[in-house]
Amino acid sequence: MEYLTIGIISYLMGSIPFGFILTKIFLKKDIREIGSGNIGATNALRTGNNFIGYSTLLLDVLKAVLPVIYVKLNYPELIYIASLCAFLGHVFPIWLKFKGGKGVATYVGILFAINIFLGSIFCVSWLIIFLVSRYSSLSSLIGSLTIPVYIFLNDQISNAIFFGIMFVLIFYTHRENIKRLKNKEESKTKIY
After folding, report:
1. How much is the pLDDT for 169?
2. pTM of this prediction?
3. Per-residue three-class SS string for the chain
């Protein structure tokens, strides 16, 4: 029963569409009709409103941090269930007909909640690739690949499998970006 309860609560928290909500409140617009149509932080920045963009980023991180930290402290054996369900909530939110974001900010929240060092590795990897390429999508893909590789090299096979699965999910949510990167059609991102 605990598995189910934690899974549902984590999913519901992860499914809160902050980019959609903030754009509706402050701009009276539907973020799904702006830029890429995605509800995540990168597209929220495309509204031209930095407050909405960075608030979306922060809230999408926190909506994973809160359930995962709670489970880590009270039901540590269920931490990967809470993590996966929070991520799936963001990518497939029940409130928006299961069409959500790409999950990167929520994934960052999961990483920091599980291990601050892992979150830091992702952020450093993301920033290095972004400063070189200016592609948020490429930075996210390489950053999320760095985590299972790092864990595998440190002989934590079972943990590497979980984060390998997370990388596959992020790869899946970025499949259109990958096509655009391949065709040199991907938009570069401004972060300020």
Report:
1. 97
2. 0.93
3. CHHHHHHHHHHHHHCCCHHHHHHHHHHCCCHHHCCCCCCCHHHHHCCCCHHHHHHHHHHHHHHHHHHHHHHHHHCHHHHHHHHHHHHHHHHCCHHHCCCCCCCHHHHHHHHHHHCHHHHHHHHHHHHHHHHHHCCHHHHHHHHHHHHHHHHHHCCCHHHHHHHHHHHHHHHHHCHHHHHHHHCCCCCCCCCC
